[in-house]
What we know:
The complex is a heterodimer of chains A (about 350) and B (about 400).
Chain A: E1 16-26, E2 32-43, E3 48-52, H1 59-66, E4 74-79, E5 82-83, H2 89-96, E6 99-102, H3 116-127, H4 132-145, H5 150-153, H6 163-175, E7 181-185, H7 193-210, E8 213-218, H8 221-227, E9 230-235, E10 238-244, H9 245-250, H10 255-263, H11 276-279, H12 305-309, E11 315-318, E12 321-323, H13 336-346
Parallel strand pairs in A: 3-8, 3-9, 6-7, 7-8
Antiparallel strand pairs in A: 1-2, 1-4, 4-5, 9-10, 10-12, 11-12
Helix pairs in contact in A: 3-4, 3-6, 4-6, 6-7, 10-13
Chain B: E1 62-73, E2 76-88, E3 93-97, H1 104-112, E4 120-128, E5 131-132, H2 138-141, E6 149-152, H3 156-159, H4 166-178, H5 182-195, H6 201-204, H7 214-226, E7 232-236, H8 244-261, E8 264-269, H9 272-276, E9 281-286, E10 289-295, H10 296-301, H11 306-313, H12 354-358, E11 364-365, E12 371-372, H13 382-392
Parallel strand pairs in B: 3-8, 3-9, 6-7, 7-8
Antiparallel strand pairs in B: 1-2, 1-4, 4-5, 9-10, 10-12, 11-12
Helix pairs in contact in B: 4-5, 4-7, 5-7, 7-8
Amino acid sequence: MAGSGRAQLRDSTALLRVENLVVEFPAAGGRRVHAVSDVSFDVLEGETLGLVGESGCGKSTTGRAVMQLPAPTSGRVRFEDQELTTLSGDQLRRTRTRLQMIFQDPISSLNPRRRVCDIVAEPLAIWGLGTPEERRKRVAEVLDAVGLDADSVGDRRPHEFSGGQCQRISIARALMLEPKLVICDEPVSALDVSVQAQILNLLEDMKARYGLTLIFIAHDLAVVRNVSDRVAVMYLGKLCEVAPADELYRAPAHPYTATLLASVPVPDPGVRPDPAADEINAELPSPLAPPSGCRFRTRCPRAQAVCAEREPEMREVAAGHYAACHFMLDRPVLAGHTVFEERKSNA
Amino acid sequence: MNHPTKPGGFAGTPMNHPTKPGGFAGTPMNHPTKPGGFAGTPMNHATRPGGFAAPRGAGPLLEVDDLRTQFLTGRGAVRAVDGVSFSLDRGRTLGVVGESGSGKTVLARSIMGLLPTTNVVRSGTVKYDGQKLTGLAPAELREFWGAEIGMVFQDPMTSLNPVVRIGRQITETMRFHLGIPDNEARARAVELLRSVGIPDPERRVREYPHQLSGGMRQRVTIAIALACGPKLLLADEPTTALDVTVQAQILSLLGRQQRERFMAMILVTHDLGVVAGRTDEIAVMYAGRIVEKAPTPVLFSDMKMRYTQALFRSIPRVTDPGHKRLQAIGGRPPDLAAPARGCSFAPRCPYAQQRCRDETPPLIEVGSGHAYACWYPVEAGEAEADLVTRRVAGDGVWAR
């Protein structure tokens, strides 16, 4: 996949507009880890963008680069008409109050030695907002919104709570300063499926109640479909495909997206595991030396010589649906397995 | 650590030297990273050194009867496994499904005998091929670990020894159980790595675990578990730590190896999607008990227990339209140290009545291997309707 280009960007009214984002880290021997390479996307106000990909594809790094944690190597991040990459420390800190993050491991993202009410009130304390009484009221209000009773949980500490409850506390903390954009980095992947459903429902409720815009980073395609309006698929630091959620799942254009879909386990014994999922070569290439041309070519069942020579550009395959591939799945197909059966008969 | 380097030392009867093989002398639970304990030998039993003459019965391969495991803690006895019975035939796959804290991992460890030696109360029996495993000393259990029963753990990084080369971790068990020469064991290790889909195995056997990706490490732990050709494989959340693409490959690999070796498998997971297409039978666990057990197709089309239904309904699907409200299970699993009266799921169950809070429903068999414990079960046709609705969801997409 893996393509560059900015065709997928929409008009400039987007709440967040990321252009040509590059994040590299120095590695031993003067080499560089190409974590994110030339990624562009935008998020409209009130929208949820799902960012999916395997471990090591750079999706978390992308989320953190938006927060300038750390600042990207190059590229632009425009949030609410402000260019974040050029802001100085103090300005950046002020702007970041409108950008918040929720992390994967709810337990380690809370300080074990502090009480829940202090954890949740800390953003207010840092910015000196409100009187103690006002703060208490605000904490109670937000804890109530995430389904926790301030009176009974406020004086307890994180170890007394389950993973799902800790994630509720993290969400409450992220909401204290009324952010515009919340970046959720795998917020449910450490949770049981029953609790995961609670947290996903809660995120939808909070989005409606506080008018949030979300970037939802995850590797589980079913979860991403549930929460997202638009989905971007990443592979080894590049974007493969961006499309409205329903469109992407109905008609994936990129072979990598089709493979990901074929790998999702279906809770129905009438559906046999998809043999297409086995065909893909298991190993993700090293981001120290990404393949030339299309980065997905080493694992792609459709790869040809041209894929090694030329990097595919993002292009529109249907209204609002963009993909970067030289050999896109020709016509919209219904599901991953269909795609691969078709390919076999062609071969 | 823990590496018996002299295969010759075990050529006699290892049982007579309980202190000998280094790491094995302590409690098995203290050595979860030691791969050696779990692999087995692809040899037939006649060649096993000092082994038991296990009866080759026609009965089930594994029989678990009223198994109970309690951990004594400051808060009282935690009933992690609370009266579990089932049997498993040769070559069959049982899926064990439940939330965190339902006791599924402790069940797998109790079958294996991998429990702490202190502050544990155990009762019930585990019979493997007619031979009682419960009550055996660790040194005796060692004859079964790896050779007869293999185990794959959730986290491949912590179940491999980081300072020992991969080849050595695979050959260790073969040398222990078979006493075969190093070069032969090494050749087999290369073959095993090839059979579990590791490219360039000749090079990989000389590498260390940190040089492999998570998926490759899990393939290595599977190779270790398969090394001595066990008849039973316990896979405890083998794919939970892995990516979805890798998960599909690892599950297929396990299924393929199982068919080729006619090996029975217990697949422990929290994901009904993982077990749906890959098991013969499923046991749903809640609060240390089996609350429903059925052949896989029956469980999905005719589930009876309300907890199974709730678990099934809470899964998000790729076929559902976006922003569909998920049916979460409210509340949290019960405290196993303070079991309440009645059905353990009653406090979270939307269908609970007074009777559910007063009396514990027994696990009753309703024919064709289907058993459930519920006073007010899902009505006939309800589950089937659920399944069909899901199949046609999303414009018929994925209705394969």
